[in-house]
Design a protein that fits this description.
- The structure holds two protein chains of two kinds.
- By secondary structure, chain A is mostly helical.
- Helix content of chain A is 75%, strand content 0%.
- In chain A, α2 (21-48) packs across α3 (80-116).
- The radius of gyration of chain A is 22 Å and the shape is elongated.
- Chain A starts with a helix and ends with a helix.
- The chains are: A mainly alpha, B mainly alpha.
- Chains A and B meet through α1, α4, α5, α9 and α11 of A and α1, α6, α7, α8 and α11 of B.
Amino acid sequence: MKALHDSASAEAAPAVAPKRPRRHSTMAWIGLVIVGFWLLMAIIGPTISPYDATSIVDTDVFSGVSSKFLLGSDYLGRDMLSRILFGTRATIGLALAATLLASISGTAIALFAALSGGWRDAVISRVLDALISIPSKMFALVMVATFGSSMLLLMVTAAITYMPGAYRIARSLAINVQAMEYVQAARVRGEGVWYIMTMEMLPNMIRPVLADFGLRFVYVVLLLSGLSFLSLGVQPPDADWGALVRENISGLGEGALAVIMPALAIASLTIGVNLLIDNLRGKRAAKE
Amino acid sequence: MNGMVPRLILRRLAVAALTLLLVSACVFFITNLLPGDAAQTALGQAATPETVAALRLQYGLDVPAPLRYAQWLGNLLTGNPGMSLVNNAPVAQMIAGRLPASLMLAAVTAAVSVPLALFLGIVSAMYRGSVFDRTVNVSAVSLVSVPEFLVATVAVMIFAVKLRWLSALSHTNDATTVAAFIKAYAMPVMTLCCVIVAQMTRMTRAAVIDQLRSSYAEMALLKGVKRTRIVLRHALPNAIGPIANAVALSLSYLLGGVIIVESIFNYPGIATLMIDAVTTRDMPLVQACSMIFCAGYLLLVLTADVLAIVSNPRLKTR
């Protein structure tokens, strides 16, 4: 699943990037603003929200936009804007932690595999390839069925799901980098493995690894919010944006804002990250 | 053609079979990882050690795990995935009741999305850089990076709430006339299509453009051949392989999308069965459903690989 995404966008990027460099940087700025906004909200959101996330403000359920409810009210008459602001932390924090775990462990294993080579590299690569061929949602459902849903389990599950993809990208980069003269020079100098990994190889592959980090973050957000939407993710009283869509789904028939707003919040975040990293890739493609 | 193609295909088959085996081991051992076991969970904390031991014996939990895995795998392969812990019905029977509905949904979605995606992909490759191409590209990128339930909820808002053309819930039992059939399937199929078409269009476009960059296409252009003719007569036949590959890979996205779509529209398919099984922790049912999904996914990826091998003319002449 992940490989498909990667190859599709990798093929599309060079075809588009060199032609319209200016448009891309505008888009990247838009992406940066959106991502920056949500990151800020994750930090200060709860302090600036008009109401507490759990307080029932009015008996008027599923109301539209008003001066009292800037984004409408939910199925219990709670303020949607406050619910979303409080949910930012659960959504972004959890996804960020899982992605960091996936990318860092994937990259570290990749560096180790590329440097040691031989049977170690082969075994690690085969096993992780097998992990990739389990559809992400299936793996998550099996994990939730076994262990029950908790923040820790969700984070670990998402990290395991997307680690092999991060490994694959980082390994192919590391294989190229470790053939460079400066790595060989470091080896001849007698530097330790740790030094070569962190000081020589990592700085030379950080850009594509960062672009991949952004892409992986999007997948994790989609996976976790999908799980929450199935009521199998973040459990009440905590609520991420996917859970907010689920708890208000009964308002769908009357076209309630409460259903659409959290879903739009997810969309804005994932599209924002995509815009931002498309530019990272575009620049790289233009340089090559 | 000296056996290169069959050899490569056999290799793919072997790799797929091995992967499926590894996946089954993963599923089995994860679902058996929980501290404490099924017998303890079923009886609760108040159970006496004797009753737990008796139930353990009945479940066959006294057998070592690798042996249980072999038994489980054997039963699965012979079509006997065991009894549901919650409904006290055979898992095979429960799945048989739901699988046709899911396959129907997938088939209708494929029938709608493949022609649409091919059309969009080829046309946007032909008029690369045009307004049409850019519109298609931007919508495809946005659709790919948006959760399925957003597409579904927006579709319900527009077509069921605002326009009142369709009902928000899908009822497949009374779909006897064509109109009723369309009404029942329109919403879930439309939602699934959005996700699949976006993927497929991008990959089709990339495959055709890849061919258009080759030297024979440039040659034809320099000869003064019309653009439509270059695409349809020269590029397209050569892009069939990559496109078929893209179609099979994109269809594997159905598996992820179908889980959300069946849930939101209350569609009585195998995905809703699995979600219920996860909620009630009905492990035999979870195992069987997840193996069906993984097998379906691997089958589509395998098909994509085989199509890529078969359609590569270089492998035939060597």
